[in-house]
Amino acid sequence: MAYRLSASPPFKKLSHSDLNWNLQGNTLTSQATLASESDTMTGLTADQVVSFQDNGYLVIPDYLKPTEIESLLAETNTLLDNFSLESHPLTQFTTGDDDKSDHVGDDYFLDSGDKIRFFFEPDAISSEPDPLTGRPALLKPKNLAVNKIGHSLHTLSPPFKAVSLNERNAAVAKALGFKDPRVLQSMVILKQPSIGGAVPSHRDSEFLYTNPPSAVGWWYALQDARPGNATLGMWKGSHKGRKGGHITRRFVRKADGKGTEFVENTGPSLPRGMEEEKVEEPREDELEVLDIKAGSLVLIHGNVLHKSEKNTSPRSRYAYTFHVIEGADGWEYDKRNWLQPSEGGIFEVISIIEVHINTTWGDFPRGTSHIVYG
Predict the structure, then answer these.
(1) Tens place of pLDDT for every residue, the chain, 374 residues?
(2) Where does the record locate the signal sequence feature (predicted)?
């Protein structure tokens, strides 16, 4: 089952008002008709686009202003302080990539696509029930026990919405070739000191599958992410078909609606323009461990292999992330994907910018989707 991402739910479009676009040097820029020159939002340079195409990811330092970082950290702390444990099911976030645990898949998780919910670190919860309450007990204060907060911060939290749905991100999406960029699955990943769980190697389009694949992650470092505190590890170029970049499995809801599972992908495994035969798998010695300063944005191709280790350091590693998928005709978001509208509700739709560009950039006509992945 699939549906076309037109103007219908579950997703909306990415930006704002009546925009004027122009090309300054090699940088695509957009400016609202009434905005001042200081408000002009830039997209990506030609070199940045090529780097993303070649490597499958791109680190952009200082993408967030210091005031934006402060605002997002303050909002995160407010959310952690104010959520109640009284009715919380103490849902733990587990990846299910080993033989010891299933991926999280209870209703609290599955119905979180249009809500703000809190998921705990497995190591922060007792293995045996508390004899007084009959429930598992937290082993740490709740603000040090949460693994992540999600999955609709971009619609329900004003500070996170402000850094998600804006002209600059729309310009970046257009530079990456999106025709109708849609935002979904926003979350703060906390990587708590000493217990922040590892995320095994994966490709984001396994979780947010479109036919054909189109996902790109926006990953913002709210604190320094370094080799010592479980930063991102990337296999450079592993989004390409010849480097094993095919989406061979998918993370879906079980057919009975109870829980989640990984299944074989029987649909297209590469974005359009990446029709390559597999030659080799990424090697462990090709892993690049990134050193990312707070305020940086990391763009992550949906087919690139990446992971993060357990945080055994005394320093947390807060990051904010959301994903963008293609909503134009010719792409379908599958109804088996774990992220779906809750019963009786829909995901907020992201507003879109209608872009008409008559100039050219290199060999690519700017009125069309020009990125050829791979």
Answers:
(1) 454 443 333 455 665 433 333 333 333 443 333 333 333 456 999 999 999 999 999 999 999 999 999 999 999 999 999 999 988 988 775 655 554 555 555 888 998 999 999 999 999 999 888 888 888 889 999 999 999 999 999 999 999 999 999 999 999 999 999 999 999 999 999 999 999 999 999 999 999 999 999 999 999 999 999 999 999 999 999 999 989 999 999 999 999 888 899 999 999 999 998 878 778 889 888 999 999 999 999 999 999 999 999 999 999 999 999 999 999 999 999 999 999 866 654 444 444 443 332 322 233 222 222 222 22
(2) none
Domains observed in the chain: 2-365 (2.60.120.620)
Q: What is the DSSP string of 143-191?
A: GGTEEEEEEBHHHH-HHHHHHHSSHHHHHHHHHTT-SSEEEEEEEEE--
